[in-house]
Amino acid sequence: MADFSTVFFDDFNGGSVDRGNWRTLYSGDYGNGAFSWTPDQVSVHNGVLDVSIERQGGGWVAGGLSTIPDGQTYGSYEFRARIEEGQGTAGVILLWPSNNTWTDEVDIVESHRGDREGFAFTNHGTPWETQYIGTDVAEWHTYRLDWTPGELTLFVDGQQAGRMTNDVPDQPMSFGIQGHVLADSEWWYGGGPDGSTPSEVNIEVDWVRVSEYTPGRGDGASAPAAAPAPAPVAAPVVAAPVVAPVAAPVVDFVAAPVEAVAAPAADLDDPWSAFWVDGAVDWAAAAAHVTANHAATGQWWI
């Protein structure tokens, strides 16, 4: 990594979240109405960061944290993580504008399937681009995104898994980890929780390294030793009291807006599959659906 120099490395060996690195803990209701974010769902124990998604009473809560307002333009983001299975839940590890105003977004790992047998790597540019990576995110893996001028390159366990060059962000971005609960209407994710969904689903992170882009002047830092697999699953520990201001809810455009027009259930690897009729795409139906989505949301998407 000769083009990158470490900004911070967190191995979560303390007793609580290091607020010097993680400036924002999420709080507030999410736009799809399916859950709320609360700082209580973020904890550190046994050398692992735990971002928890949990059923409480008749609803759901989830954790999230970010380096907002700290950020940088270009850099490398490396982490070792796993996301437990759970229908109707999702973990998202992403880059988000440091000014907390949505104009760009890069979802490094978006576990949109309950079985975690793959994940989406998405650049929310114009147009949006998603690459589906066939990695079981319920197991421990090391992920790295290298963000350089005009290019996003994703590595899984040291092997290149994705690359994008279209409309790459060029503004300061912050690194975040967040849990989600999906609404029943979000068919493109497979819908909300059901009877198979555990009452608690955890996003576990063993370590995170954030590096700035310093072409030809990198520090050559290497990844630490891998976490044992499988890692022990510990009971959630309530985080220490928040000592820094909790940010207003972070509006996340990972999921399409709730107002989007419904369509038949589709194969998530082929967004056109909902419109296949007798072996061919019904382009008129697809066009009508995309046009309706644009009218409702201002965004062109399937």
Would you kindly provide a written description of the structure presented here, covering whatever features stand out?
5% of the residues lie in helices and 37% in strands. The protein contains one helix and 20 strands. The C terminus is likely disordered. The protein is globular, with a radius of gyration of 19 Å. 38% of the residues are buried. Strands 1, 3, 4, 5, 6, 7, 9, 14, 15, 16 and 18 form an eleven-stranded mixed β-sheet that branches. Strands 2-8-17-10-11-12-13 form a seven-stranded antiparallel β-sheet, with no helix packed on it. Strands 19-20 form a two-stranded antiparallel ribbon. The two termini are 37 Å apart. A hairpin with a 2-residue loop joins strand 15 and strand 16. With 302 residues, the chain is mainly beta.
Topology, element by element:
Blueprint: E1 4-10, E2 24-25, E3 28-29, E4 36-37, E5 42-45, E6 48-56, E7 59-62, E8 64-66, E9 75-83, E10 89-97, E11 106-110, E12 119-123, E13 129-133, E14 141-148, E15 151-156, E16 159-164, E17 173-181, E18 200-213, E19 276-277, E20 280-281, H1 283-297
Parallel strand pairs: 4-7
Antiparallel strand pairs: 1-18, 2-8, 3-4, 5-6, 6-7, 6-18, 8-17, 9-14, 9-18, 10-11, 10-17, 11-12, 12-13, 14-15, 15-16, 19-20
